[in-house]
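Incident log, structure service

09:12 report received: a user says their structure output differs between two submissions of the same chain.
09:20 pulled the input from the user's history:
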Amino acid sequence: MRLQGKVALVSGGAAGIGAAIATALAAEGASVMVTDIDATAAAVLADSIRAAGGSAGSHKLDAADEAQWMAALAATVERWGSLSVVVNNAGIAPTGDPIENLALTDWRRSLSVNLDGVFLGVKHGIRAMKANATTAGSIINVSSVLGIVGTTRAPDYVAAKGAVRLLTKAAALECCQMGYPIRVNSIHPGFIETPMLERGLQNMASLGFFPDATVAAAAIRSLHPIGRLGRPADIASAVVYLASDESSFMTGAEMVLDGGYTAQ
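09:34 re-ran on a clean worker, output below:
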């Protein structure tokens, strides 16, 4: 119960990494608002958390929509009286197009969710926390190993995730300068076994990079010296640490959980 008394909001919380994060936060005692563009799936997960004895609610949230961010955060504070943790997890995969073929509309859509969505969560998370937090606040931005190193055929994703890394540092410094008891850190997962990764592998196969998704998965796995892909629980455990007071001296930092991907 390391998060007893804390109130958290998780964006993109209905599936994959987000669902694991929401579940882990609740298991450690936090009250969790599960938000997602898929409101039905968010509600189902919140019901599951409550059935297991946790405290949870749900709210629809398109992470690229500022009004929806304000509504979701207001609903969280109204329900539990404060806000302690915001996990900016919502994201979408790249199209797989090279820069020369990437449509501007696809570029903008990717950045609107993967970067603008994080900016909005940080902006309004700070506003809500400084006014309502009963304990020290923690904002956790889920970036990627592709926010540290580059790759081909994902210029939109790499640009957004790299920007999240430095936005995190800027926000952390501003909170310190303003005297807000709010820490801001980023997490950089390697490739994680999620529905989004499965769709990406199928897309790579359909584009002709691999014979099928199974071969694509083996190729991606080989990029991780530890010998396996990551699991959602690997990321959730790190989020619990950053949300807890155990990480009280950590801000503007990045946690890399990539099985050695960026060590090569």
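09:41 both user submissions now match this output. Likely a transient worker issue. Closing.
09:42 reviewer note: The chain has a mean pLDDT of 95. The first helix runs from residue 16 to 27.
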